[in-house]
Amino acid sequence: MKTQVLPIDEESLAEARRILLSGGCVAFPTETVYGLGADARSDSAVRTIYAVKGRPSDNPLIVHVHKEYDLDGLVFDTPFAKRLREVFLPGPLTLVYKSRGTVSSVVSCGLDTLAVRVPRHDGAQRFLRAVGIPVAAPSANRSKHVSPVTAEHVYTDLNGRIPLILDGGASEGGIESTVCDVTGEYPIILREGLVTREQIASVVGECGVWQGDQSAPVRSPGMKYKHYAPACETKLFPAAELEGAIACFGAEEKAGRRVLALCEHAACDSFPKGKALDLGDTAEMFAANLYRLLREAETRCDVLIAVEPRARGGAMAGVLNRLRKACGEGK
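The structure corresponding to this sequence follows.
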């Protein structure tokens, strides 16, 4: 299969619609990461997503719709979900509702819930309006690999596996959307991201964070499986153990390995010049830079020494979740 990378225009959008309505997959940009979309109404089309990615079959998908789409045909709404949509959408927030069962059960792995997102990215909105259907879409990468934030990243992972990548430039947000369950008495965050618990609570009065059993059925992407891992070896150090990271860096270099560090701006001078990948100095910069730098690291080094930023609170919960899954947990 030949994979085309095309700018978003009337011609490429018409081709994207044709591919989706014939059961195929198309990669498209969002403000967080690139998504791999297929017709959410079709069992076979949704299964194609899992096959293309090599994704575990019990890991649910998110349905994407444009901002004028009528959600009443997809889910059972709640008053506080409406309020969250008014404040945060379009944007990097996914809401998990009780499903009306009008899309393929493969999307939610047989559960009675449905995760729905309305992306803010103009290219995503144009794509979703052009196809006019609910689009199931995880990140457009090989399962467990670093999420893609450019069309080039998607091409690296999926060349020859999908027919079309819509190129909408680099994603600005950099980490996946916050996922929030709105089926109960108050919202529960299932996956942390750029929209924070504090922001949600300020709108609806209360917001919890999922603390469930890892053996329970997966209710949202990002809850269970190892994700976001670069191809190089990684070693992760807490912020308070910078000296240990420096010593480890030196030992790896002495052993003749190609080594890079990944750290916040203030720590970059602790490593040899040109050997530190600079995450920046704010939570928003950390999020925007993380996946791009992880992708860069796997092309330049044998081992990546990652140091957690010192900042906490707000969007840092999502940043640290991704960094730990990429470089720490399950390694």
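DSSP finds nine helices and 16 strands in the chain.
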